[in-house]
Amino acid sequence: MTSPIGIQQDWRMLPLHRTALLLIVSTVILKGCSGSPLPVVSGVTLELAQHRSATISDINYRLHFSIPERIEGPVNAHADITFMLTDNFLPLQLDFRESPDRIKKVVSNGVATPVSISDEHLVLPASVLQPGSNRLEIDFVAGDSSLNRNPEFLYTLFVPDRARTAFPLFDQPDLKARYELTLELPAAWIAMSAAPVASDNISGERRTVTFRRSDLMSSYLFSFVAGRFELVERVVDGRSMTLLHRETDAEKLRRNIDAVFQLHADSLAWLEEFTAIDYPYQKFGFALIPDFQYGGMEHVGAIQYRATSLLLDEAPSDNELLSRAGLIAHETAHMWFGNLVTMRWFNDVWTKEVFANFMAAKIVNPQFPDIDHDLNFLVRHYPSAYSVDRTPGANAIRQHLPNLNEAGQMYGAIIYNKAPIMMRELESLIGADNFRDGLQEYLDTFAFSNAGWPDLIDILQQQTADDLAAWSEVWVNSPGRPEFSLASARAPDEPDLILQQRDPSGAGRIWPQAFELGVTSSGGTRRVPVLSSAAATPIDSLGDVDVDALIFSADGRGYGRFPAFFPVLRHWQFMSDVEQGATLINLHEQMLDGGEPAPGDYLQALLTIVELEDNELLLNLAVGQLEPVFWQLLPEQVRMHAAADVERRLWDAMLAQPADSTKKMFFKAFAALAISKAGVSNLYEVWTGEQNVSGLVLSENDRIALAEALAIRMPESADAIISAQLAQTENPDSVRRLTFVAPSVSASQQVRDRFFSSLAEPEMRTTESWVLAALRNLHHPLRRGESEHYLRPALDLLQEIQITGDIFFPKRWLDENLKNYNSATAKQTVDLFLAEHPDYNEQLLMKIRQSADTLYRANKILQPDTP
Question: Which DSSP state fits 835?
């Protein structure tokens, strides 16, 4: 049985050529309800969105914002909105999630109009509207929450439904519009938006920048950046580009800027060829924002990036270079996948992200011929996807979304990491050429419009005889991962082994997939292909082999929890890079499930691997597993006993590294784990300069991170360390950040308690990356006993965090508050919260279960007899 909401959503997921009649019918039904206006409720409901998309079109926003010099001053603004309306039988709701007193005046079609303002909407009576063309003029004070105002700059970030926190509009992805923006600014500021500048005039201490009319876009993609930035303009391969930045280190800028521009140019050229569609917008630019919430955000014509993601420190690792190239390719790919063709409703937000990730890999891989890209795909996607899919809070790739105010919770590891795994399976199923041809048809059909996942499946279905809808039901529409196990043959004439695939939910699902089983030895690894499309799959051609020699998903393509055999590590040096990566991932997953290896044994194995390995991707994977094993999965006494050996081996491995980039990676691992007196002394001497490690180059940000780590480990000197670091920090944005987080490393419990309590105030959470860094310090494993009492108030704040924060903040808030704990009392805190909130928001409930998963597993490993 399908719920009414489900029925409403179904027609919106149909291809455009099949919705025309339904749109007409929907309009007729809504016309017939002239005496029953749509309910006014918080957010943007699916019902409201469907009604507006059926009745409103041709939207144009002419916006004027007056930005004061001082951050405390109000942003006075004006909106001139024109649109077409099919009829005026019902009142019209505009979205504005700010206090009613911010609306100063509303004029509808030339007549001053009193409006009802409630539940985040301006409700215009039908009497002031007319069929056909309409015009609204609104004087208001802009909301601050999505303007990200800083003393010397601001930037908007409206994804997924936060444009309505800044100005009144129809804030839903399938009501694309054009924007005409004017910004009145302090004279020393400059600005960037989606369209080129039409005029730029200075009068006295004020500057007025007017932009041309933009291309058609969804509201979450509209943006502007303004402030004390430096402007760089380049023409690369015949294409004009603009860059805004605030970097004070001229040498860092010089090292990076050519590569940043060229990577964008290369991505644009590749995408034009792959999609057979020229870059679809008037301009291309990007702004580098200090402490930006995400790696990047694909605003039309004006991408925003976290500055440190593109301006790399000296001697970057291959992994850092690859990550930068991938990020640039990802955000550039969005210009086609997400911006040109946008999901109709945010339940399909994952489609734009998976396409951007998938295209980014195709763009970047040829630029790094020395990288094992199969290994890179494995280590970047599988551990992160498993971190959610193994939990009781696992979510499907495609989810139900009744209201846009929960759209931010659609984001996470599943759409960014499991979805690309799924898409690689789909491309393999139908063939790379067919897949490309289908995407070209999809983009051409829905250009400057909206589409859903079923629209693409309808197109791709023409390329294959396989039932893609049934395939998608398991891979896309349901959560979780399969669990694999081995069974021996029962008789001589039966197969060597039986591979069993089990659905842990008990629903009997099967994830059809192909991968290779490896049989490893000192002579190398022999691969056997496996097609797992049933509950039991016979495996032949193994011969007489030791089960301990098997590597499941030896090609890195299988998805699920696989059997893993700790003794197989004895053949480490004879494995391929991908086989090694798959082995580490499988062993780690099995250990977290309470199986072999034991955490102490695995810690020693990881240390041996990092001493021997020279592949940076494998080193990152192994070192990344070291930290949680050391801090969360070892009993206190074992950890203290092992600390000196761990530190010595990491320090010696660091000194032995021939490359500066891997030397820094080992130093950071050492800094994360050092707790002995000798280890902390080494860190302090490196920070002060008393000890010079040849080839170890620390940037200003590295030194700030080291100062925070030392302040936690040397509480008696914490204030002096932070004061000294502030005195030697040159970048003013970095000074502001360190000043904010300083209380989180204070030796005083009272100072730390007051600081944590202050995070209940929304204004203290304005710069979310600072908040997360401070939480990381407060909950450092060395302070677990002193900070566990923060857990309950952190959970109590979660719903407010979801309302006021950006899309990733609720999950990151949970992660930083919960991830370092392993005690029974911490588990009880979470249990009690869940028990006391049986009707809690389902999306947030899933996030809690995801973030608490390591806490629960660590507690079970350390106290196996505890229920």
Answer: H
